[in-house]
Design goal:
Blueprint: E1 4-8, H1 15-23, E2 41-47, E3 50-56, H2 68-82, E4 85-91, H3 98-109, E5 114-119, H4 123-132, E6 142-143, H5 152-160, E7 187-193, H6 199-207, E8 225-231, E9 234-240, H7 253-268, E10 271-277, H8 284-295, E11 299-305, H9 316-327, E12 336-338, H10 347-361, H11 367-380, E13 385-386, E14 389-390, E15 393-400, E16 405-410, H12 418-431, E17 440-445
Parallel strand pairs: 1-3, 1-4, 4-5, 5-6, 7-9, 7-10, 10-11, 11-12, 16-17
Antiparallel strand pairs: 2-3, 8-9, 13-14, 15-16
Length: 458
Amino acid sequence: MAFTLAIVGRPNVGKSTLFNRLVGRRIALVDDRPGVTRDRREGDARLGDLEFTIIDTAGLEEADGGTLEARMRAQTEEAIRLADVVIFMVDARVGLTPDDHVFANLVRRSGKPVILAANKSEGKVGMAGAYEAFGLGLGDPVPLSAEHGEGLSELYDALAVHMPVPTYEDDAVEHDEDEVDDPNKPIPVAIVGRPNAGKSTLVNALIGEDRMLTGPEAGITRDAIAVDWDWGGRKFRLVDTAGLRKRARIEDKLEKLSVADALRAIRFAQVVVVCMDAEKPFEDQDLRIADLAAKEGRAVVLAFTKWDLIPHKGGKAAKLREETDHWLPQIKGCPVVANSAETGQGLDRLMQAIIDARVPWQKRISTSQLVRWLQETIDHHPPPAVSGRRIKLRYMTQAKTRPPTFVAFCSRPEALPESYLRYLVNGLRESFDMQGTPIRFHLKKTDNPYADTGRKIY
């Protein structure tokens, strides 16, 4: 059974910095200002030979019910409930504050084992604050510096006392990491869209719990938060991301970090669910986000959220299908699902669409089929003559999947018009049932098959 460790404390004491240190990657957003972290984020961590799941949490604050801060605190209290051990962190340079005493009582009442960590303990001032932490009554403080990696050996000793004795399987089987589609591995799915498009609410509705922080305020989500979930016998890793605004409107450093986190989630996903508000779909930013996902080579599913707010739905779904093909011809035929997180309408259809979108995205077509198709296509509509010279396409093969990538050998690749390339790509979609998936197409010169012109179509 996995061992879980939660890091809690008031804002800006260094919880996310320690989280990144133990995970071994800078995946939690870190900034000098307090209150950067809002949702709880989980990661696989390691300290020496100790392996465990770690939860980064929002800073504990006194807050009235219904406010954003109160909802953040509820997420932190849930992390404490899920944890086997709690690290209660204080800022040794600031010293103890009244809030530290209040929240120390909260952790004590949980009944969970507590490790008191005095962060920022480097230097004389820091060590003085670390000694002051004895006053919380949570045991001996562990002085450390999450930023500089100091004090981790002491943290190891404090954590090892609570860790279960590891067991090892003698007949462990190694799995091939390059396996095309391992059903035991979760399918990574990124949920993206403009701010307040209903992404976090959608994730909560899918998994059936208030895992993500939600509310009427736009831009609540900052970190890209991953949640593992099973549906229909398949494992999924749903990644909720920050809302993506137009680049010209992004000035704040923290928002830039959030956007970078969301873009990273798109690059590492297999399927990208682009959420659009059904009341005002196909705004310029919606189209940019969908186009970005297609250019990254991801399978795309369009989710029209807040469907319960649409009156007189007759014919609206068919119109959305028609408008999708008009505004996004590069992914024409991609799955389109109208859904409502409030009523649960369309959620099962959305998950099935995610599975269906992967089928053409990882399709493999034999070279013999492609060569035969290419010859028939050229016979029906040959390439145009440029400067009085006919362009010859002689051979074609599929280089890779995810997304489908094709290479055609051509006598004069630099002269082949873009319109004819689009004709070939659209023909591939029609002939081999690859509607809605991005396709990459490369041309190589016949007399030197290793000279890539770099021309592509997505």
